[in-house]
Specification:
The complex is a heterodimer. By secondary structure, chain A is of the alpha/beta class. Chain A has 14 helices and 18 strands. Chain B has a 7-stranded mixed beta sheet. In chain B, strand 2, helix 4 and strand 3 form a beta-alpha-beta unit. Classes of the chains: A alpha/beta, B alpha/beta.
Chain lengths: 420, 165
């Protein structure tokens, strides 16, 4: 069995599962945010109208609540949703609760990583498609809607169809100023926006082991852009050190079978840019050299982690931006590290705006949405029509290094061309 | 189960931002969400859709976010079923488990044969969709057993965990 199959077998109390089996699995951790949480509350209200009162959650200690999408609230509706989420948290006694202006908070997938909330080998579901991110730490992590998550909150179990696993073997190391984002954009280009639908995307090899954990998170984060059910990486020493014991990691068998196997030599990966309107529309950054942009955005679960800011700052140090650059650290934890290490000064000296952690503009929600006809380059994950603002705006997806370099020149730029 | 309605045709990779754009995610009232259904793909859609209608789409319908607002918005706009070459898994699951609408996989013959505005009759027991406008019939892919039971029960909450397997 693959690692995903073994986790599902363990969680459903079976010796063996095979792709295609439908299992009833125990869920170890569940996450709601300020978009999914109020949806769950609506589901519970409907149940109560039907005479089924939800007295308690299956295990409040396994529940995580995070404010991230519409924070700080840009309008009254968003503020109301935060209140609804708070009411839910208080009613059911949830103590893993991350709120803006009260210490650690921010984009949920970076919070679960920084706070070590989901352990290797666990089954984890959340009301967000990018819940796949957390699989880089060795869990079976799946995004769901609010009905499914409400069901998990009530029963602690839910059905899964065991996915086939696609194996991506990454060998070698990335060259300077090439990032995991470039790797996943290349993979998406190769397999397409539905290339992994219903399947698990597993990343392995020396190339993965050479990557810092935060880079691995980018691979599993964007697995959902190929339609994957989950992205996963078996734990190595770095992960075991990160959690420091008290965990029971799961590994695939030697003879596990994979539906497809792909190999990539990281040494040959070039900086990539996904053109509008699909993350699978990748080309090498050089092919788009000279494409003018109006704005550059560094942030989100995909491209607002501390390592992302470090790589952007390397490009920006001692330079000034020619077009707007927004830098949104993914969490308060990232923000503080960037302050302590001097990264924020580099961004401010370059002329960038540094804003508070939020999902914000990544989903066209607030704080920097695009006008009709505007073109952005962004370290985020989606460039669908209207994703970051007006339906007539355009988004190019790239690594934080490429976004930073493009902000400096005012057009799409390979970050290696800005050296010295 | 037989359903009858008119087809609204869309292409490949219709994503959840097109079905219900991000700024509306703060809205919890499904009737208000429905006022913006498919706004990102066709701003005129809500003026055209009638209760019981179908969306007919290409590959990977509903890709992108896990927002259940997407099938909710379609349901309250009147859409009863989406017939597509394939679905993104979260949208598919949300449609079924939320009891919002029927996701039905069709073949390329049906996708190419059915025209925008055609009147359709979907017969799930026979596994057929009939295009009443052209008189042609097409096989649809069988709905998996568990999915069918959840749909017939009216959504996931109608079944307890031990009743699922």
């Amino acid at each position: 069995m693959t690692v995903s199959e073994k986790i599902l077998a363990r969680a459903s109390g079976r010796d063996r599962v095979s792709p295609g089996d439908v299992v009833l699995a125990r869920v170890d951790k569940v996450m709601v945010h300020d978009v999914g949480g109020p949806g769950v509350v609506e589901v519970f209200k409907e149940l109560e109208q039907k005479g089924l009162k939800v007295e308690r959650l299956f295990d409040p200690d396994r529940v995580i609540a995070i404010e991230d999408h519409f924070v700080p609230p840009p309008d009254q509706k968003s503020a109301q949703n935060l209140k609804v989420l708070e009411g839910f948290v208080r009613r059911f006694g949830i103590n893993k609760y991350y709120r803006y202006g009260l210490g650690q908070y921010g984009v949920c997938h970076v919070i679960t990583y920084e706070e070590r909330l989901v352990l290797p080998g666990e089954v984890y579901v959340g009301t967000d498609s990018h819940t796949t991110t957390t699989g880089a730490l060795g869990s079976f992590a799946v995004g769901m809607g609010h009905t499914d998550v409400a069901y998990v909150l009530m029963y602690g179990r839910i059905w899964f169809r065991v996915p086939e696993t696609m194996l991506f073997r990454l060998e070698g190391t990335l060259r300077d100023r090439v990032m995991a984002k470039d790797v996943i954009l290349k993979i998406l280009k190769d397999i397409g926006a539905d290339g992994a639908t219903y399947k698990a995307m597993q990343f392995s090899g020396d190339g993965v082991r050479s990557m810092p954990i935060e880079e691995r998170l980018t691979l599993t984060n964007m697995s959902v852009e190929a339609g994957a059910k989950n992205g996963i990486i078996e734990p190595d020493e770095k992960i075991l050190d990160y959690f420091g014991g008290g965990i029971s990691p799961v590994y695939g068998d030697e003879d596990a079978s994979y539906s497809e196997t792909y190999s990539y030599d990281l040494q040959s990966v070039e900086p990539m840019v996904a053109k509008p309107y699909s993350p699978a529309n990748g080309v090498e950054a050089r092919e788009l050299e000279g494409t003018p942009i109006d704005k550059a955005y560094i942030g989100s679960c995909t491209g607002g982690k501390y390592y992302d800011l470090v790589k952007a700052a390397e490009v920006l140090k001692g330079r000034r931006v020619k077009v707007r650059l927004e830098v949104i650290p993914a969490t308060q934890g990232v923000y503080r590290k960037a302050l302590d290490s001097g990264l924020l000064k580099i961004f401010l000296d370059a002329g960038a705006m540094v804003g508070p952690p939020t999902c914000g503009a990544c989903l066209g929600g607030h704080m920097g949405v695009l006008a009709e006809g505007e073109v952005a380059i962004s370290s985020t994950n989606r460039n669908f029509p209207g994703r970051m603002g007006h339906r007539g705006s355009k988004v190019y997806l790239a690594s934080p290094a490429t976004v930073a370099a493009s902000a400096v020149t005012g057009y799409i730029t390979d970050p290696r061309d800005l050296k010295a | 189960m037989k359903l009858r309605g008119f087809a609204h045709k869309f292409g490949d990779n219709i994503d959840t931002d097109e079905i219900i754009p991000g700024p509306y995610l703060k809205e919890q009232d499904p009737r208000k969400l429905a006022e913006h259904a498919m706004e990102g793909a066709d701003p005129e859609f809500v003026k055209k859709v009638r209760p019981g209608d179908f969306i007919v789409a290409g590959r990977n319908f509903g890709c992108g976010s896990s927002r259940e607002h997407a099938p909710l918005a379609l349901r309250y706009s009147g859409v009863k079923a989406v017939l597509a070459l394939s679905f993104a898994r979260i949208f598919y699951r949300n449609s079924v488990d939320g009891g919002h609408l029927l996701p039905v996989e069709i073949g390329i013959d049906a996708y190419e044969g059915i025209g925008d505005g055609d009147e359709l009759e979907l017969d799930l027991d026979e596994g057929l969709v009939k295009d009443l406008t052209t008189g042609k019939g097409y096989r649809v892919k069988p709905i998996p057993e568990l999915v069918r039971r959840i749909i017939e029960a009216g959504g996931l909450f109608s079944l307890k965990p031990e009743e699922l397997l």
